[in-house]
Amino acid sequence: MTLWLTRIVPSPSSREAHRDLGGNDQGIRLHQRMLQMFPDGVEGPARAAFGVLFRAEETPRGLQILLQSHEAPDHTRLPDAYGNVETRSLDGMLSNLHKGTIVNYRCVASPVRKPGAAAREAYKLPPVVALSGNAAIEWWERQSTAAGLEPLHINAHPLATVRGSRGPKDPAAKQRVQHSRTQFDGTARVLDADLLREKLAAGIGRGKAYGCGLLTLAPMHQRS
Known about the structure:
Blueprint (H helix, E strand, L loop, with lengths): L3 E7 L4 H7 L4 H10 L10 H4 L3 E7 L2 E8 L13 E7 L1 H5 L5 E9 L2 E2 L3 H7 L5 E2 L2 H14 L2 E18 L8 E16 L2 H10 L12 E9 L1
Antiparallel strand pairs: 1-3, 1-4, 2-3, 5-9, 5-10, 6-7, 8-9
């Protein structure tokens, strides 16, 4: 299966792009915008059908949106003058992943834990508890190892929580969305290339529909 990576550099003059990227509901708006570039009428959730993962991030050259998918998106379905769009296949990068390869990585994820019923009752905890600080780093160590990576260096910093609502136009029927986010950057060694390729396609953690879970790699072409 081919994976495609699309880079969108929003135009400063695009009102649609400005609206999509503004506020704490950015992930909800971008979810709708990214799916706009794929065919309608698929069976089941469209995000899963097309393997859509995305994130918005600041770069030295400004804001960009990264979109990963199983099918190349049709950028002509975006609003006129939304921004500059480039799509490329990830086949070359994926085929060059081998055990021992050293990579730079980045992932914006939603680190959480789910306390058991006894702990929730004793400490009045919610079903899902957001993690931060060392607890978030430990979460990432577990997640990256489960994805076939050995983290060598981890830099973690919190991002704004995604908040908003989704669902029907009727406010009473809408569902609340809330995902805490942490950006993890660093270097890692590939432990299991096949497992890593699977996890790259599937994404990491929860909140994948709202800008979390996209793991990107840049191989350093070093072997242990």
